[in-house]
Amino acid sequence: MTLLEALPLALLGALLGLDVVSFPQAMIARPIVSSTVAGAFIGHSEAGLLIGVVLELIALDTLPFGASRYPEWGSAGVVGGALFAAQPRGMPGALPASILAALLTASISGSSMVVLRRMIAGRLERSRDRIEDGSRAALVSLHLSGMSLDLLRGGIVTTVAMLVFSPLVRAIVATWGTESSYSRSVVVVVAAMVAGGALWKVFHSVRYVLWFLAGGVLVYAIIAVVR
Amino acid sequence: MTAAAAPAQRIPRRVQLAMFIRLLAVQGSWNYETLLGTGVGFAMEPALRCLPGGRKTPRYREALARESRYFNAHPYLTGIAVGALSRAELEGVDPARIERFRSALASPLGSVGDRLVWASWLPFCSLVALCVFGAGGSALAVVGTFLLLYNAGHFVLRAWGLQIGLSRGLNVAPALANPVFRRGPQVIGSAAALLAGVALPAALQRVAGPGRGLNGGIIVAAVIGIVLLAGLRERAEGWRIALGVLAVFVLYSLLT
Fold this sequence. Notes:
The complex is a heterodimer of chains A (227) and B (256).
Chain A lengths: L2 H19 L9 H12 L2 H15 L13 H14 L7 H39 L3 H39 L5 H24 L5 H18 L1
Chain B lengths: L12 H11 L13 H12 L9 H10 L10 H14 L3 H40 L4 H30 L10 H30 L7 H17 L5 H18 L1
Helix pairs in contact in B: 1-2, 2-3, 2-4, 4-5, 4-6, 5-6, 5-7
């Protein structure tokens, strides 16, 4: 992938990365959205949706509580969706390799958010006197520069990730040695255990939670049998 | 409130709209020192221009400086604080009382919002979208369902918060006793648990692919993994485990 080819995805990654914290937090950064949109950019939205669902199941484990550090899924979803959608259909290594690339991007991008917050604190320190004096210009400048830097951060992370992982994933897919059914099974098991563990972590204090869960499984079983 | 406090000034609709739009970007300058503080100042600034004399007066500058200090809350509920503080500033409430109000309000707005939004509404909406996917929904149906459902709650909560803050001023505490905040997480959690029983197997079935399905080996491995991770709770980060397992699996698949 060339820099020019990565540019539209970089813009998408920048916009969706901005949604994570800065603006407007409408959850367009969630992987079920970001990967699908990236897949559509490549011309294969269904592939984007498939990897987006797997990443969403994994993302259930990371809820953005306050000042906690968490992976950034906006840019990562774009990278995962674009990489998977760009692979030829039916290649067994495409999904695991693309998910791995997306998870690595999410981790790196999460760290870049920490760096950004420190940068904003540095800028705040430099303009503290003016803000303490009630300067509108200083406050608006700090705020808008924080958002601009976040936009830039998402764009840079997406561009670098696409340039690094695009050839890497292609090479992995070409030399993949595990058969298709096993490859997909590993992905399903990983997504299931992370999502299940995450939902238990969040909802374990709900009264009769196991009964509700069992009721849901029963509904699923009835639908599966009737179908 | 000071004895000389002026009656509440009516904040024009266009100013309220500007505040609402700025609230969508309230975390734009989030940092480890003032957290949401500068964002609160940024969102309140259009209302502070309604102070007598506008933005050229010492009162405007003092209010803007005061409202840009440390503050923490859930971003969706920050509108309650922004509305209440704007009204208090326009009414000329004693600055010491405003400071005490800011300190007292931050913690409840954070914990209530975290439980209702991050730990209930967001996973619930994800599960609804996964259900649509599991039922064979198209990309547009899945993404559209998620975004419409989630943001119906999101934007209503933000708009309600700002209105309640503007209308009640410093008397917003009863609003936090709203049944939605008290019972919402429990009700949404119950619905989410029921939905999880349908959504997870249905979505995983479709991910596994046509003709493969969820065989016994996959189900047993998944259940063991879920039990292990559930037992570890906060001591393990699932996404890191996923990263590790997939890295090992990719390496294995390249070497075989």
